[in-house]
TrEMBL record:
This is NADP-dependent 3-hydroxy acid dehydrogenase YdfG. Residues 6-182 form the Ketoreductase domain. It comes from Micromonospora krabiensis. The keyword Oxidoreductase applies. The keyword Oxidoreductase applies.
Amino acid sequence: MNLTDRIAVITGGAGGIGAALARRFAAEGAAAVVLADLDGDAVRAVAEGIGPLAHATTLDVTDEEQVKALVDDTERRYGRIDLFCANAGVTSGGGIEADDRAWDRAWRVNVLAHVYSARAVLPGMLTRGGGHLLHTCSAAGVLTAVGDAPYTATKHAAVAFAEWLSITYRDRGIRVSALCPQGVDTPMLADGLAAGHLGARVTAASGAVLTPDQVADAAVAGLAEERFLILPHPEVAGYARRRAEDPDGWQAGLRKLVRRLSA
């Protein structure tokens, strides 16, 4: 997808990867960027920093009616949606001890929000014969987020859902991309490190921590090439191959890393 003159919607747009995507889309010549986030004040500040082509709104991505209203309002305002970025996400930092509320929150934000946006935006895209869905899924969706069971399980589900969408709708003009970065310098990672979450510590120790702008650069390149799997950390592809070819060895390596960090 060439972003020039495109209408893009981004959830989780108040900071981190979402805000970086919005700034980069604007720099690429997008006609409009609609930013949505639960933190209304923060997302409006991001939109104001971008300028007149950006529009901000408060949104709870776990409320399907709100997601549908966002899509309907954007289509009324701009006539169409060319690119929908389901970017909002949450971590838990928990394992089997994580309570049902943590699992439910991870499921609703990391998976169901993607389902809700696809349900809302696909009819218009299919009628127009084209469109692109960009789902932020994390490298945890193709590997494992050590120390965070709800995040691992739901990000795997997010990648699986994106793949299903791609297989089902590509021949009808819909492109789907799963954005799967590893460590990114965002409040999510910083909060996890501050709380001492094992998953955040493993992420920080496993490789380069990219800036959100670097992830946005990779996303734009992947969209231009219409790639399904967008890996801002190219080494993740190698990790995934090792994991598939030698799962026992892959798990042994992660256990060794966990022992070193725990010590």
